[in-house]
Design goal:
- It is a single chain.
- By secondary structure, the chain is of the alpha+beta class.
- It has one domain: 3-Layer(aba) Sandwich (Protein Transport Mog1p, Chain A), CATH 3.40.1000.
- The chain is 34% helix and 20% strand.
- It contains 7 helices and 6 strands; from the N terminus they run E-H-E-H-E-H-H-H-H-E-H-E-E.
- A hairpin with a 4-residue loop joins strand 5 and strand 6.
- The longest helix is centred in the first third of the chain and has 19 residues.
- It is globular and about 45 Å long.
Length: 180
């Protein structure tokens, strides 16, 4: 697997979506995908890349792949915004409950100090990441295989999702460990 460093989503995260508090790693792969093994391999590779990114802060995380657990999730559900969250984002409500488990849309739109982003931003960004939603496969991983998740377990929440685009041979890893 190889990181697609020039993917347009990375540029958007540096400009229009710089307040998004998630870690994205976008990888290409060759050969046949092998179901969940491809997803697990992508997570391990993503954490190696995150450690490279974190090294400038003299920080690294450990990964214990044998502790990984996961569940398949529907792509429509992963990329949707709940009615409750739509209302919170629309009204700017300051008192709300954090969903358990943390949803990707909530992590994107409602990090501890906010983003000012709206549902349309979430949809637009994910349309860049996943333009063809026909042949996507997604998994949600547990948060007990890496100390990356320790901060989020304190309060706000954690999440780790992988989305495989079979046609483009791209797998995106989205990691969240948010706290104040």
């Amino acid at each position: 697997m190889k990181e697609i460093k020039d993917h347009i989503a990375y540029e958007l995260l540096k400009t229009e979506y710089e307040r998004v508090s998630l870690d994205y790693v976008i990888l290409s792969f060759e050969g046949e995908e092998t179901g969940i093994e491809t997803h697990k391999k992508a997570v391990i590779e993503a954490f190696e890349i995150l450690n490279e990114r974190f090294s400038e802060f003299d920080y690294s995380v450990k990964v214990e792949p044998e502790k990984m657990s996961f569940e398949k999730c529907r792509i429509e559900e992963l990329l949707s915004v709940s009615d409750e969250l739509k209302e919170v984002v629309k009204t700017g409500e300051k008192s709300f409950s954090i969903p358990e488990p943390l949803s990707y849309s909530f992590a994107f739109l409602m990090p501890p100090y906010g983003t000012g982003l709206k549902e349309d931003d979430f949809i637009r960004f994910n349309d860049v990441l996943f333009p063809d939603k026909e042949d996507l496969e997604a998994y949600r991983f547990s948060d007990d295989f890496s100390d990356y998740f320790d901060a989020g377990k304190e309060w706000w929440g954690t999440g780790l999702w992988t989305v495989l685009d079979r046609k483009k041979k791209i797998i995106t890893v989205i990691a969240a460990s948010l706290t104040d």
